[in-house]
Amino acid sequence: MPYYITHSTYYKCKDPIYVAFASQKGGAGKSTLTTLVASYLHYVLGKRVLALDCDPRQHSMIEYREKDKLLIRENSVVKRRFARFMENFRGDAYEIIKCSPATALDHAEKAIQEGEPPEYVFFDITGTVNDRELVNLLAAMDYLFVPITPETGDLKSSIGFATT
Fold first, then answer.
1. 52 sits in which H/E element
2. Closest among 44, 46, 47, 55 to 20, alpha carbons compared
3. Taking the model in full, what pTM does it have?
4. Got the DSSP string for 65-133?
5. What is the DSSP-derived secondary structure letter of residue 2?
6. SS3 of 46, please?
7. Which residue of 33, 124, 152, 160 has the lowest C-beta tally within 10 Å?
8. Percent of the residues in the chain that have a pLDDT greater than 90, as a whole number
9. CA-CA distance, 126 to 151, in Å (whole number)?
10. Mean pLDDT over each residue of the chain, to the nearest integer
11. Half-sphere exposure of 116 (CA within 13 A, CB side)
12. Quick one: how many helices (H) and strands (E) in the chain?
């Protein structure tokens, strides 16, 4: 088990937990769930979180973060509430790294080796599984959640994906 140095002390660190929400269905809520769970763990429970936005077609997590920044800049009420929240939180926002499925594990490993390692690493992935890099990325997950919708076609697709 590796040891990491932080604030001049040693502590034993378990490997971070790799998590992804995945399905073949676009619009199933993968990026939203990834953002919500990562944010809850970080901002509410105080866990160290890293997120990798691995969907080169849209990079939703990066887009969400940019929209939040814009809202904070343009709305004085939101700006004050955000400042108050961050003051009480006494920490920084978790890092989101923009990458592709092929480079995601390398980016995660590099981030883990630098500074204070995350406890959780979230991978926001594309809605298709038609390439080897994405399958390899999914195989590296400790937890893989498959969101489903109640529509028959979506349900069949999601169950087929989860079974595979």
1. strand 49-54
2. 55
3. 0.81
4. HHHHHHHHHH-HHHHHHHHHHHHHHTS-PPEEEE--TTTHHHHHHHHHHSSSPPSEEEEEE-S---SHH
5. -
6. coil
7. 152
8. 52
9. 20
10. 84
11. 13
12. 6, 7
